[in-house]
Each structure stands twice: as structure tokens, then as C-alpha cells.
Write a structure and sequence with these properties.
about 725 residues; about 35% helix; six-stranded mixed β-sheet; four-stranded antiparallel β-sheet
Length: about 725
């Protein structure tokens, strides 16, 4: 039986820095170790503290104007918009935004459990993003009845189009304007301009607006024992090349993209939408990993579009065969094994085209796994792993791309019981543009007639794990569940109820195969020679996540990538990865030498090589040369101003180098992106104390760090 080896990969948080120039650099220079520390006015030293001020806490939503009543009805009104925007309304009506609230049986199952365990007021934490119509009327503090139309409003037109400001915190950290919307009138062009001014603000077109809800944290206000990072697609995006951040590695020339560019592509209008430009509107289906939602609607075309959206965004490769101490990097030719050999297959996945982790969203509840089957010449199965997961949902041989969120006893929670999360155990999702290696072991069978062997692998995805799907199905058959189905036929939405008992579609995101021949068999070709660059490079990236004692396994594929490179950019990519490998192994001279070669190749290719400054800086941290590392981290931060991790590294280096004023500036610029980052809160607290800040402010900074440091830190 094949068995999967684990690889841990993780991430954290983000938002827009208004000082960023169009070329991706920061208009302000990064603080340096030479920043003055004397003569500072203590009264001018302030702490940047996480925001908790909201009348709807623990949701961080704010609203203006703030009338005493009627806010929920105003937010729930879709029909008024649909009169002119028929295409957009039709698309939105079958989207995850439309079914964000209590009429979504999966969400209702989760939030009802939360409210039962932690009380109705704390469930406002969910309301900022899932239930704005209920939240703004204070209805989340009371029983939610099936007949309440606000419980079917979802994330409506007036929510997204009413956001005036997006704050970096997450948990619904947007400012909402519910003032009157100017309705365009025929023959009055000025009314159209005023309409656009109230419903198409600049914030609407930013990734930061999406981040207000697609980024979350957990803490005592949400019913948790300590601060935890919640679901977060915003930070991985902001740290990636898709956001213009290149501190991770020298990479392919990746086009910069916002959330809207991927999830709201331009589509043809069919109903004559008044907002169409050249016959197209931005899709409001918000395609993502929502194949089950489409199936619950019974919409086959939407299901097909959702599946198509996923396919090919992650690559899969049977990259190598290990026999004994030897490893063969596979090409298109078969590899040779002997009968009874202990064989290890290395499979490589690379997240090519997802701007955040794959799978994204609620990683603890996703169901994405590898299925591997080995058959002999007659088609009989020799070995398998993950083959039973599609039916069972808990196949122990399946390598799953998900996170493990544990409760206080260490038990994994799989039903989205976020209030029971105590600590993260691992995260096996794939960060943007990163790779993972999963190894499988088997015994080569006896009998020459059984050869050659064929290896077939698939990366498979369904929206939610089967445990949660079964719980939602069971809840939909209760009296409360049936009542919500009945009410779904009422206005203001079309009479489409979701059926959580519908079978979840499974999407094959990627597939790969390989052939294993019997050593000495006639016609068995060798597999020596140059490897295709992309395959070898992805394999090397994945191997760099191995345990320290196995890190050198990345060297051979990266050297193979360098040997097969055909362009200066590819040479820069391979050399840059080898420089990072040297740094991780403590080979400082090697890291600097490879980084210099990578810089030269990148210069010829006009590729962004700021990642080499990060490699040099981290290499200098080994001998504690913090003052020398700081300006290198500063260049990374200045050229990747959205990357909170870059600012955090700079702040820590400056603080360790004895430059508290510069460390404070770096930390606070990073906290503008990730207000609850424990490392930057710690640097800020120490720097304020060192600089003689007013005692109350220093204490507030210290307390903010103490409250937000991760569990166990």
C-alpha cells in the first residue's frame, strides 16, 4: 500500500499601502539602522493598535449614516438594482455571495452551532461578512427565524457597492455608506455621473475591499481561548508575485492580478445590462471552488464553469523514482526497477495560477487530495493511495491539501467549529507559486509478465469534507431546515433553495502518469540527460520544504533545472533557488556566490531579483550580523510594499541591531498591513519602551502584543 509523506506549508495576512508607487515600490525609503534615536519627542510616539471599535463587535463593520431603523431592508434590496442591471443580478443570484446567509444550509449548520455554544451576540463575528442585513439591524443578537427576509439577503449589491473604506483588520472591517443612491435618469447625464460616484467608488476595484472579509482572525471576542489567524486569502496574495511582491523567489514573469481579475472576469451580457461596456460586464458569479454550491442549485452549466475554473491551476508530476540510495529524475521515458525493490515515488504539485493558497478559503473544511494508483501490464492494481477517499472522505492513505485545526484536547475539528479551535497543527495547502513534494512507498511486484507498471495520479477537489456535508444534509431535514427551504421561495430572491444532500461534484484539477519498466527488459530506455526546466524547478522548490537533514535532496533537481535552462530568466530562477538552498543549509559563501550569479542572469533577463537581497539578509542572520542584514531587508520591503512579512523581517532586524526608532517605523508600516501580527506588535512594544514613550502608550503596545501572540508563543 502506498503511503503519503507530509509536507508543511503555511502563510498569514495584508492590505494596500497608499505610498506604493505604480511600479510596485514604496514612495518612502525604508527605515534604516542609522535612523536617529536621540532628541525624539516622547509625546509624538504612539502605538499602532489593532482596531476593535465597532458597534457590531466582534464584527468590525461600521456604517454611516446610521439611522435607527431600516438599515437591513436597505441592504437587502436587490430588486431596485436589478431593474437596470439584469445580467449582474442574474449572475449574483446563483453566487456564493447571494447564498452567504442563513438560507445556505452549510453556513446555517455552522453558525447555528456557534450560536448555541457561544451565544448570539458573539455570532456577530460571522455577521459582518455573511449577514450584513441582520447585523446592521442588531438582529444577530436574537433568534433568527426562517421567515426573516434579511436572513436570505446574503452579501448584496448595497454591501460591496456601499463600501467607502477597507481597513486591514479583516472580520468585516469595512466602512459602509447607506446614504441615498442617485438613480440615473434618461436625458440627465449628470445623474449617471452622480450614480457612479455613489456606487462605483475607487475602493470597489481594490483587492483590499475583498480582504475585509476574505481575511479573518479568532480571539476571545470570537469565543476562542487565544488569538489565532483565521481563514486568510488576502495575506498570501499580498506576499505573492500576483500582488507585485517578489521577495519569495525569482520567478516567471507573472502578470499582476487583483481578486477581481480572476474571480470577476468580463463576460457577455444577454439581458441588456445598463452597466455593460462594449457588451460586457464583470461577472458576479464569483467563480472559485464553489462546485458544490452549483450542484446544490441543480445548475449543471454553473457546475461545469466552476469545475473549469479550477482545472489546470495546479500542476502535478510524477517527478522521480527512488530505489535504494539512487534517485532517477523522470522524463518522458520509463524508469527501470527490479522485482521486490522498495520503490519510492516522488510526486510534485505546484500552485501555478492561484493568487493565494490552494485550496483557499476555509482550509480546515476543504476536501482536496491526491489519488495514486499503480497497475501492472494486465491492468491489475499493484498499489494505491487515496483511492477510497472519494467515497469515504476519511481514507487514511490520502494526502490531503488542508489545514489541521485542533481543539484543546488536540482533536481535529472538521465541522467549521471555529470557536473550538485552540491551535493550528499543520497546513498542507499550497502557497501561490510554491510547490510540494509528496512521497509514496511500494514494493515492486514479482513476475516479469507484470511489467511495465503504470502510475496514474490525480489531484482531486470537492468544496467541503464529507463530514460537514453530511452534517448539513442532516440539519436540512430538521423542522428548522425545512422551514428555511419553504421560505426560500418568497421574495426578495428567486425560488431556488439549496439542497445540501445533493452529491458533491469532484473536480480533477490535475493529473500525471509515469511508466516503470523492469530493469534489463528489452527496449527499456535510459532516463538520463537534461530534464525539462519547469519540472525540475518545481521539484527543487518542493524539496526545499523538507526537514533540515533532507534539504540537500533539493540540490539535484535544481542543478538539473539550471542545466536545462534555455533563457536567462530560467537560469536566474534556478540560481536563485540554489542560493536560497545554500542559505538554508548555513552555507553563507555559497549563498552569496549563487545570489551574485542569479543577479547577473536576472539583469540580462530584466527579471525582478529582489529575492536575492532577502537571501543575503537571511544568510547574515546566521552569524547575527543584523545591522548588515537590515538594509537588505529594507530593499525587499520597499520593492514589495504590500508584503507584511518583509516589513516584519526588517523590523526585527532593526530592533536587534539596536535601532529602536527605525524598528518602530518599520513595524508600524507593517502593522498598517497586518494589524495583529505578533512579531511586529512585539517590536513596537519594545521600541516604544526603549524610546521613552509615554507610559500609558508603551503599556498599551505591550498589552496588544500579549493579547495577540499566537497560542504557545
Amino acid at each position: 500500500m502506498l503511503s503519503g509523506a507530509c509536507l508543511v506549508a503555511g502563510c498569514a495576512a495584508t492590505v494596500h499601502d497608499p505610498t506604493a508607487r505604480r511600479d510596485g515600490r514604496d514612495a518612502r525609503p525604508a527605515p534604516t539602522a542609522t535612523a536617529p534615536t536621540r532628541g525624539l519627542d516622547a509625546s509624538a510616539l504612539v502605538a499602532v493598535l489593532p482596531d476593535g471599535a465597532s458597534p457590531f463587535a466582534p464584527a468590525l463593520t461600521r456604517v454611516a449614516p446610521d439611522p435607527a431603523a431600516g438599515r437591513g431592508a436597505k441592504v437587502a434590496d436587490v430588486e431596485g438594482c436589478a431593474e437596470c442591471h439584469a445580467d449582474v443580478a442574474l449572475q449574483w443570484g446563483r453566487s456564493a455571495h447571494a447564498f452567504a446567509s442563513f438560507d445556505n444550509p452549510v453556513y446555517r449548520t455552522v453558525v447555528d452551532g456557534f450560536r448555541h455554544d457561544r451565544g448570539e451576540e458573539k455570532s456577530q463575528f460571522c455577521g459582518g461578512c455573511h449577514d450584513p442585513a441582520l447585523l446592521l439591524d442588531g438582529a444577530m443578537r436574537a433568534e433568527i427565524k426562517p421567515a426573516d427576509a434579511r436572513a436570505r439577503a446574503g452579501v448584496s449589491c448595497r454591501v460591496c457597492h456601499g463600501v467607502t473604506h477597507a481597513r486591514a483588520d479583516g472580520n468585516g472591517s469595512y466602512d459602509l455608506d447607506l446614504g441615498a443612491t442617485v438613480v440615473p435618469r434618461d436625458g440627465e447625464p449628470e445623474s449617471r455621473l452622480r450614480h457612479r460616484a455613489t456606487v462605483a467608488r475607487a475602493t470597489l476595484r481594490t483587492a483590499e475591499m475583498c480582504a475585509t472579509c476574505h481575511k479573518a482572525f479568532l480571539d476571545p471576542s470570537t469565543g476562542n481561548a487565544a488569538h489565532l489567524v483565521g481563514q486568510d486569502d488576502a495575506t498570501p496574495w499580498a506576499r505573492s508575485a500576483f500582488a507585485g511582491s517578489h521577495g519569495a523567489r525569482i520567478d516567471d514573469d507573472v502578470e499582476r492580478r487583483r481578486c477581481q481579475d480572476c474571480h470577476m472576469p468580463a463576460v457577455d451580457v444577454v439581458l441588456g445590462d445598463a452597466g455593460a461596456k462594449r457588451g460586457k460586464v464583470r461577472s458576479h458569479e464569483f467563480l472559485g471552488g464553489h462546485t458544490w454550491l452549483a450542484a446544490m442549485l441543480g445548475d449543471r452549466q454553473l457546475t461545469a464553469r466552476a469545475a473549469s475554473f479550477l482545472k489546470g491551476r495546479v500542476s502535478l508530476d510524477v517527478a522521480a523514482v527512488r530505489v535504494g540510495g539512487a534517485r532517477t529524475l523522470l522524463g518522458t521515458d520509463p524508469a527501470a526497477v527490479r522485482e521486490d525493490d522498495a520503490v519510492v515515488l516522488d510526486l510534485v504539485m505546484r500552485n501555478l495560477d492561484v493568487g493565494h493558497a490552494f485550496p483557499g478559503g476555509v482550509r480546515d473544511a476543504q476536501d482536496t487530495w491526491l489519488e495514486v494508483v499503480v497497475t501492472d501490464a494486465s491492468g491489475a492494481r499493484v498499489a494505491e493511495a487515496g483511492a477510497a477517499h472519494a467515497a469515504r472522505g476519511d481514507d487514511p492513505t490520502a494526502y490531503q491539501l488542508a489545514s489541521y485545526a485542533a481543539d484543546a484536547s488536540g482533536t481535529r475539528r472538521v465541522l467549521r467549529e471555529t470557536h473550538l479551535f485552540r491551535a493550528p497543527v499543520y497546513d498542507h495547502t499550497l502557497p501561490a507559486r510554491d510547490a510540494a513534494v509528496v512521497s509514496y512507498a511500494m514494493l515492486a511486484p514479482r513476475g516479469a509478465a507484470r511489467y511495465p507498471l503504470r502510475v496514474e495520479a490525480r489531484l482531486r477537489h470537492r468544496s467541503r469534507n464529507l463530514a460537514l456535508a453530511r452534517a448539513a444534509c442532516a440539519a436540512s431535514r430538521t423542522q428548522r431546515g425545512r422551514a428555511f427551504v419553504a421560505e426560500r421561495a418568497r421574495p426578495p430572491k428567486p425560488p431556488h433553495a439549496l439542497d445540501p444532500c445533493a452529491e458533491q461534484p469532484i473536480t480533477d484539477v490535475a493529473s500525471a502518469s509515469a511508466v516503470l519498466s523492469l530493469a534489463g527488459a528489452a527496449g527499456a530506455p535510459a532516463v538520463e540527460g537534461a530534464r525539462a526546466f519547469a519540472r525540475a524547478f518545481a521539484y527543487g522548490l518542493g524539496e526545499m520544504h523538507a526537514l533540515q537533514e533532507r534539504l540537500d535532496d533539493a540540490r539535484a533537481p535544481l542543478e538539473a533545472a539550471l542545466a536545462s535552462a534555455t533563457t536567462d530568466r530560467e537560469r536566474a530562477m534556478a540560481l536563485g533557488a540554489l542560493a536560497e538552498l545554500g542559505m538554508r543549509q548555513g552555507r553563507v559563501d555559497e549563498a552569496f556566490a549563487r545570489a551574485r550569479e542569479a543577479d547577473d542572469a536576472a539583469s540580462r533577463a530584466r527579471a525582478n531579483a529582489v529575492a536575492m537581497q532577502r537571501v543575503r539578509a537571511e544568510a547574515l542572520l546566521v552569524p547575527w550580523k543584523l545591522a548588515e542584514a537590515a538594509p537588505l531587508f529594507g530593499e525587499v520591503a520597499s520593492r514589495s510594499p504590500r508584503d507584511d512579512g518583509a516589513w516584519s523581517s526588517l523590523a526585527v532586524a532593526l530592533g536587534g541591531a539596536g535601532s529602536p526608532a527605525a524598528a518602530l517605523e518599520a513595524a508600524q508600516r507593517g502593522l498598517a498591513l497586518s494589524p495583529r501580527d505578533a512579531d511586529m506588535l512585539r517590536v513596537q512594544a519594545i521600541a516604544l519602551a526603549d524610546l521613552g514613550a509615554i507610559p500609558g502608550r508603551a503599556v498599551a503596545a505591550r498589552d496588544a502584543f500579549a493579547e495577540r501572540r499566537l497560542a504557545g508563543a
